[in-house]
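Morning. Coffee machine broken again, so started the prediction first thing and wrote up yesterday's gels while waiting. Chain of 242 residues, entered below exactly as on the submission form.
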Amino acid sequence: MIELKNISKSFNGKLILDDISANFLKGKANFVIGASGSGKSVMMKCMVGLEEVDTGEVLYGGADFVHLDYNQRKTIRKEIGMLFQGTALFDSLNVEDNIAFPIKMFTKLKPDEVTDRVNFCLKRVNLENVNKLYPSNLSGGMKKRVGIARAIALNPKYLFCDEPNSGLDPLTSRLIDELIKEITIEYDITTIINTHDMKSLFVMGDNIIYIYKGKKVWEGQKSMIKHSGNRQLDDFLKASEF
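Came back before lunch.
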């Protein structure tokens, strides 16, 4: 489980995250929703250390990531998988080398062991025999699956997905949803998903957090979301055609 306790973050005197506390549950697809500019991407960056909070705690299994030293943070980072909005694959590396990148960085596996792990991850995302292809040879959906394969390469405890369906057609989006959900359950991962895709939320969301202008104003289950009683959340759902 990941727990946020009263985190706040400002840029150039502008408050972006305002005293947010939240729990992200193990083995669940935890959704963070909100309008563009609400602060959800900044919150995710603070959770993985790409940005530093001004105040508050980010707890991984009880350990406060904010106050850990470099080596202690590195230990937790080995347990984090990231699926970026644009996949963030290295254009100059082929599929195999993209997936192998974090394995080589964080482990001392032998070359044949690295290859075995890469092939396992590719098989898990239903992509085989694409090892030597480059990102430019892949469709949008294939790039997302390679991104997922890289994200699970170190068998993470925590999986962060930033707009995983961005730029995908509806059918491919649903396939990516199903894959993320399957992996979350299969490996008992704490998965955090930032998204504007309400279809994804209603298909696979477990725990949901709604951020409005930097504040967490609602948290609950998807079965409760249409009856939240929160005006801002109701307006957000209506604008999303739900």
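The chain has a mean pLDDT of 92. Going to sketch it on the whiteboard this afternoon.
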